[in-house]
Structures are given as C-alpha cells and as structure tokens.
Design goal:
Blueprint (H helix, E strand, L loop, with lengths): L18 H15 L7 E5 L14 E4 L6 H10 L4 E7 H7 L1 H10 L4 E6 L34 H7 L4 E6 L3 H13 L4 E6 L11 H7 E3 L8 H8 L7 E8 L25 H10 L11
Parallel strand pairs: 1-2, 1-3, 3-4, 4-6, 5-6, 7-8
Antiparallel strand pairs: 5-8
The structure holds thiamine diphosphate (TPP) and iron/sulfur cluster.
Thiamine diphosphate (TPP) binds next to strand 3 and helix 3.
Length: about 290
C-alpha cells in the first residue's frame, strides 16, 4: 500500500505561504490514493517556481527548458506506456513559452496529464504579466496595467476538443486531488489548470480572491461540448467554475494510431543492430563499429 510519505519530504526554495505547497500536497494525495509507487510515475517540467515541483517529490523526473515540458513528456509516455507521465509547470511556461506545444499536445492526444500551476503571473522572474494575467493588472513591468487580454486555457482546450479539461484551486485540496486522479485515470491528454496563489508577486489573485471568485461545478454534463464551452467562458467579473469541465468521449489516445507502440514498451526493446546498419547503408553511409575505451 503506497502512502503519501513514500513521496518524501524535501526543503524547497518556495516562499512561505506559496500556493505551490498545497498543490504538492494534493499531487501526493492523488498519487498515494491511486496506489501508484514513486517508480511508476515520471514528472516532466520546464523552468520557473512551479517547474521546481518535481525536485521536491521522490519520483522519476526530467527538468527541461522553459516551455518545453510537453515534448519530452509525450516522448517518455510513448517510450514507456506503463509509466504515468505528468507534465507540471507554471502558466507562463506551459501557455506562454510552451504555448504551441500545448496546442500540439491537445491535437495529438498522447495519454499524459498536464498540471498547470496557474498563478496568473511570472513568479520566478519576479512578477511580470504572464499569458493568464488579467487585462489591466498592474505589475512593476506593466505599470499602466497588462495591455493584453488573458489567455483562457480551459476555453482554448474545450474549443479544440481536448480529451479531458478540468480546473482546480489549491484552497480545495481534496477536490483538487480528486481532479488529478481523474486526469491520471483518463486515457488521453488531460489538462488540470490549477489556481495557485503567488503570495509574493500577485497581490490581486490572492487565496481570498480565488475563494471568493470560484464555485464547484454541480449538475454539469462534461460530455456536452456546448455546456462545457459555456462554463469555460465564465471568468472575469463572473464566478469561475472549478471541476471537470469537459470530457471528449469520441477521441482515442495517440498510441492507438501508432503501430510502433504496441507490444513490448520501446523503453525495454532490444535495438536491432542489423536493421539499423541496413538503414544507415541505405543512406549511403558507412557503419563504423565503436569500441569502448
Ligand atoms: C526561453 C526563455 N524565456 C524566458 C526565460 C526567463 N524565465 C525563467 S522563469 C520565467 C517565468 C516563469 O513563470 P511561470 O512559468 O508562470 O512559473 P512560476 O515561476 O510563476 O511558477 C521566465 C520568463 C527563460 N528561462 N527561457
Ligand atoms: S515567487 Fe510566487 S510562485 Fe514563486 S515561490 Fe514565491 S510565492 Fe510561490
């Protein structure tokens, strides 16, 4: 039986009171609740405060470049489908620098979970507006208010027919852990956008602000695209729904369309050196045997 303690306890570089702590608790609760052992899980992140999360949990992990968590996460899953793969980073990392990877991942539908720490700000670089910062929000770098409209990640995901779309809040830990579990259990790409207050650099979207501005979805049919789209568009002046917004029941995971992912996982298959030699020769190359010194 796996417990939360199996995932370890580490010192962090996060500010006291940061929403990242509650998010990490919910992640551990979700994994232990699913009885997943640390060796069965792989986290992939980019750069930022949120992207440090995999440093502070005892699991497999890959920490890549800013905005680049999704490509290696999808690669890891295709190489080893037996592994639960989670891409975890900030809203800047995953929707800004990694924005196009986000769109491509939704189209592709590889069976991974994407957790976005959405603090509506660039935390690590000290509070510039991120793609999800609300228009007009004043920061040191945007003293007249952020000029652009905020990116609504869940609406973008529903509009693209992503296969699982949810939104959570770290102030609702059990609810969030349940959403993470549903996302992991979902076969296909699953997004959980998570409100995570940055207590140092976002003085607008605080714990109190999220508490006041969110409500839990009830009597909502996540398989109804129109309903999901309507709920995903509730933001700004309106109250913001948290819960599972959308489930696309028609899509199949990417691996179902890829003949190489059947059978033994690529990660464990032996390389066929003779076949490789033939491929190299077919390009007119020369195959030189390597000797280890
Ligand atoms: C390509 C690139 N652009 C910009 C940076 C600088 N940079 C590092 S972290 C960061 C912001 C991270 O914000 P976010 O992803 O929202 O995560 P948070 O720190 O808020 O958790 C930026 C802009 C970088 N490292 N690489
Ligand atoms: S800067 Fe913000 S996001 Fe980063 S650790 Fe501090 S409170 Fe958390």
């Amino acid at each position: 039986m796996v417990s939360v303690e199996d995932y370890g306890e580490f010192e962090t570089a996060w500010c006291p009171g940061c929403g990242n702590f509650a998010l990490r608790k919910a992640v551990k609760q979700a994994l232990a609740g699913l009885d997943l052992a640390p060796h069965q899980v792989c986290f992939v992140s980019g750069i930022g405060q949120a992207a440090k999360a995999p440093h502070y949990i005892r699991c497999n992990a890959f920490n890549g470049l800013h905005g680049r968590s999704l490509p290696p996460a999808q690669g890891a899953k295709l190489a080893n489908p037996e592994m639960v793969v989670i891409s975890e980073s900030g809203d800047g990392c995953q929707y800004g620098e990694g924005g196009n990877h986000f769109l491509a991942a939704m189209r592709r539908n590889v069976d991974i979970t994407m957790l976005t720490h959405d603090n509506q700000i660039y935390g690590l670089t000290k509070g510039q507006a991120s793609p999800t910062t609300m228009q007009g929000h004043k920061t040191k770098a945007q003293p007249f208010g952020a000029p652009s409209t905020a990116f609504n990640a869940v609406a973008a995901a529903v509009s693209m027919g992503a296969s699982f779309v949810a939104r959570g809040f770290v102030g609702e830990q059990d609810h969030l852990a349940d959403l993470i579990q549903q996302a992991i259990n979902h076969k296909g790409f699953a997004l959980v956008d998570i409100f995570q207050p940055c207590v140092s650099f976002n003085k607008v979207n605080t714990f109190a602000w999220y508490k006041e501005h969110t409500y839990k979805l009830e009597d909502h049919d996540p398989t109804d695209w129109n309903q999901a789209m309507q709920k995903a568009m509730e933001f700004g002046e309106q109250k913001i729904p948290i819960g599972v917004l959308y489930k696309n029941t028609e899509r199949t995971p990417f691996s179902d369309h890829l003949p190489t992912t059947g059978g033994e996982p690529l990660a464990r298959r032996k390389a066929d050196k003779e076949a490789l030699r033939k491929v190299m020769l077919s390009y007119g190359g020369e195959v030189v045997a390597r000797t280890s010194s």
